């Protein structure tokens, strides 16, 4: 090796030049453009705020969120928390937020399950099953969502009355009053049992990770299912029994002209959920199909050579690899489902949009009402994005 190559002084990076106050300097130009853009944005925002304040003063419209503490006098058909028309507007808007979350969370879960099954069926070697899945995908994706929501709501309205309700399964009734299902009389003991189950799930996941790490160290397999059984089944049951929760279910029964007992899904909620799930599942199915086809064919051939069945290959080999392709576009569909739930106002379901619209019509606080709607959907969308980005990072390949 020559002395020139070995001289450490020649290996140093060249000194960084300072910014020249000249338009020819790239960094100087970048700073000027950034200052101009930020200044333009601040100026536009300032003009909008001043213009809005001036118009409100001219029209003598009060601003602020003080109206939230006033009595709402607004009837709401269904709510997850206690509510009466004598409650405040803040309580009414809380009911709207919870109703929106009830649609978004349940819809995301059901759309994921249905979309995954349809996407796998789309790739089935059974010609009839594959054609049915393809027809479902093409038809549902090509029809406007609003039209589909009206279609499902019309179906619910044309169902028979409670006395002639459809009874496909014992304890399940479908009528123009909605879908009535068996349920339990929820008490505090049930809540503690549910918390125990959630704790058991988390503890099982941590134990499984610990067992996997120890197996990588000493090569000794460790059974996870006994711990999972104790934490996820035995623990909640013990909490349930110790706190004296009732074991019998609340079965719906016809009393007069309507049903009593059980849990009821209103026609509006059922139509909204059915429309959102079937519509979003069609897009998810295509994402799942593309993700599965992105896995190299050699993975199938190698798994078949090991004697694995096609179902186990799909579940244990292909889908885990396909998730790296599926998750990013799936996030967009989850966001679309949450935002599309705002169409609930078209069929009379009282979500945050419906309740906020009624509130701003009664109080005249249009700006505050729109701001509340935007804030709610922004929080929901950011929460979905954060969770999906975290999950995507968890399953991403890490280079060594």
TrEMBL record:
It comes from the Bacteria. It holds the Pfam family BPD_transp_1. The chain crosses the membrane at residues 30-49, 103-121, 189-208, 229-249, 269-292, 370-391. InterPro entries: AA_ABC_transptr_permease_3TM (IPR010065), ArtM/GltK/GlnP/TcyL/YhdX-like (IPR043429), MetI-like (IPR000515), MetI-like_sf (IPR035906). Residues 97-388 form the ABC transmembrane type-1 domain. Belongs to the binding-protein-dependent transport system permease family. HisMQ subfamily. This is Amino acid ABC transporter permease.
């Amino acid at each position: 090796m020559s002395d020139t190559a070995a001289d450490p002084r020649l290996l140093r990076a060249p000194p960084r030049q300072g910014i020249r106050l000249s338009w020819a300097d790239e960094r100087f130009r970048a700073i000027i453009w950034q200052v101009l853009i930020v200044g333009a944005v601040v100026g536009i925002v300032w003009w909008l705020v001043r213009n809005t304040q001036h118009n409100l003063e001219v029209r003598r419209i009060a601003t602020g969120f003080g109206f939230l503490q006033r009595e709402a006098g607004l009837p709401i058909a269904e709510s997850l928390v206690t509510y009466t028309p004598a409650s405040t507007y803040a309580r009414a808007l809380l009911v709207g937020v919870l109703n929106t979350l009830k649609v978004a969370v349940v819809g995301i879960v059901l759309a994921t399950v249905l979309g995954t099954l349809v996407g796998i069926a789309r790739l089935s070697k059974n010609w009839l099953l594959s054609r049915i899945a393809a027809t479902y995908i093409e038809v549902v994706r090509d029809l406007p969502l609003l039209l589909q929501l009206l279609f499902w709501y019309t179906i619910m309205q044309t169902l028979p009355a409670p006395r002639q309700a459809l009874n496909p399964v014992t304890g399940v009734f479908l009528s123009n009053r909605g879908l009535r299902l068996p349920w339990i009389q929820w008490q505090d003991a049930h809540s503690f049992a549910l918390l125990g189950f959630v704790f058991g799930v988390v503890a099982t996941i941590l134990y499984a990770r610990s067992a996997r790490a120890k197996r990588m160290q000493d090569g000794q397999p460790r059974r996870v299912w006994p711990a999972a059984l104790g934490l996820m089944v035995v623990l909640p049951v013990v909490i349930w029994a110790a706190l004296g929760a009732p074991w019998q279910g609340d079965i719906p029964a016809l009393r007069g002209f309507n049903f009593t007992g059980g849990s009821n899904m209103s026609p509006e909620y059922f139509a909204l959920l059915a429309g959102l799930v079937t519509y979003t599942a069609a897009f998810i199915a295509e994402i799942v199909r593309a993700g599965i086809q992105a896995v190299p064919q050699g993975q199938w051939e190698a798994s078949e050579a090991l004697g694995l069945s096609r179902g186990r290959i799909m579940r244990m080999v292909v889908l885990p690899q396909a998730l790296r392709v599926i998750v990013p576009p799936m996030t967009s569909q989850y966001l679309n489902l949450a935002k599309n739930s705002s169409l609930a106002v078209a069929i009379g379901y009282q979500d945050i949009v419906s309740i906020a619209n009624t509130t701003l019509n009664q109080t005249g606080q249009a700006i505050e009402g729109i701001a509340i709607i935007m804030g709610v959907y922004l929080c929901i969308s950011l929460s979905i994005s954060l969770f999906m980005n975290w999950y995507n990072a968890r399953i991403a390949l890490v280079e060594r």
